[in-house]
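G., the chain you wanted modeled:
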Amino acid sequence: MKVIQINATCGVGSTGKICVSLSELMTQYGIENYILYSSGNSSYPLGIKFSDDRYIKLQALKSRIYGNYGFNSKIASSKLIEKLEELSPDIVHLHNIHGHDLNLEIIFNYLRRKKLKMIWTFHDCWSFTGYCPYFTISKCDRWETECNNCPQYRKYSWFIDRSNRLFNKKKELFSGLDLTIITPSRWLADLVKKSFLSEYPVKVINNGIDLNVFRPMKSDFRKKHNLLGKFVILGVAFDWDVRKGLDVFIDIAKNLDEKYVIILVGTDRKIDKLLPSGIISIHRTKNQTELAEIYSSADVFVNPTREENYPTVNMEALACGTPVITFRTGGSPEVIDNTCGVVVECNNNESMVTVIKRVCESGTIADEKCLKKATTFSMNDRFKKYINLYESLR
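Predicted structure as tokens:
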């Protein structure tokens, strides 16, 4: 059996790391496999790049000008098909294919014509909307019937709203395939069942993490940042904005006294200018071990995300023994239960402050409960479900 994964990246970013982890597991099981990717560079030996970054940037520009997101990149698509013809896979496993690297019409007509068995892991909602990977903040449900007059189109197209055309084109192209859809969360699976893709089987396979990396770690982090005797509240993201709840942290910082310190990881100089004095900004960590040390140093991990699928950061925090407080959005609440965290209604900052104080000062959520929950997050255990799925499709 030969499996080809297709993703925008290889070993970089959340989806790129998932692809490599899955590839390594397939190799352990003796499954020949490769990752075809388009952006960045990877030293992973089974990664094959089919485009270049300069070309991708040009296609992104064309998409913004013409509003035809997903229907440029003809050259890259032809090169991808050449690789698929050369490798002749039994199964094609799609991941994130909306990095301005593919022409959907070319690729899906090819996949249909070749009658290839397909798995598609949805990491967001883009596959069944005109433009949007998420639509919670905009409170839009037009995707359930037919996208049009997109309230977010200017994020993706400078001049023309083609959401209706793109929606119907996707609906046409994504029909009649030998396809199984995978979602990391029950939340996203339920959305798929309401969409034009409801004809396909949908399975939930949660993402996982490396528990050898994310585990309780001793460090001098608290001493180095003068945090001894403080309650440390941690937030981690790599694209801080309203969607990730940056404004929530700024607000709750104003409502906590000097006993509390907020640490935000994944910021930059632009974000620094927005932060009040009660927040410590860390632009980046050297590696995942350093990140695990920071998780382990915190009293609570707060994730005020407003749009989310199945956040890895929640799992990483729990695996380091740190309880999680999250908004009730997307699949974020699915990662925790009442033994290891608390779910707060979205945008209820006052309740968020109350819960933070209760969790920190009462100590009712012990490290052991978080670690017990984290035993279910093993990446290999969860991704074995993909191996079983591949075997069932042979």
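Residues 13-28 form the longest helix (16 residues).

Shout if anything looks off.
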